[in-house]
Amino acid sequence: MHEYSMSVGRARACRWLGCAFGLAGLLQAASIAVVLFAPRFLALQIDCMRGGCAAVGVPMTLLSDRLRNTAAAMTNAADLLDLHLGLPTVRLELFFAQLVIDLPVVGLLLSVALGVHALGQRKGHDLARALPWLRRAAVFALVAAPLIPLGESIRTTVLMQAFGPPVRFYLSMEFQRLVLNLLLALVALAVTWALAAGLRAEQDLAEIV
């Protein structure tokens, strides 16, 4: 079987890219815990003025435009949301919603990190070692496509309860984005299948020869 490896420069770039994806995955995983301890920072905004920059939590931006306008019409909307976010049950519900949103993304990022890093090892058969991780990344992307809008809907439902009577479930899903993400994940998965089939055919040919 042919020992696949990249040029030195491209291999180094892949290793750095793998580290970047890995760091992004770890930060994404760490951000899930933020919901339990500082739910206001679910939505983070950096405000910079002459005195410096500060991180500000703006959870109101997680609502849809219509719901945000409704809340804006209430004079005590910010206080109601703060009280709501302070409830332990609300934090647990938001934590669950964030798990639904972030776990497949973390799996995707870490799988890509390990796959791309394997491509840059220059130890022979790099592609064969990278393919299983890239295949897992495609599967995580496929799972993330429907789970992200579902988790966002759960989160919105929990936040809405701060401004009125309990809402059973508020489902908000952008159909075109969902279909596009599913198609892109399926294409990535099909590419890994094709590469794996090519590697198997090359290995079979090498054994015959």
TrEMBL record:
Keywords linked to the UniProt accession: Membrane, Transmembrane, Transmembrane helix
Domain of life: Bacteria
Transmembrane annotation, as ranges: 95-116, 137-158, 178-199
Protein name: DUF2975 domain-containing protein
Species for this entry: Sphingomonas arantia
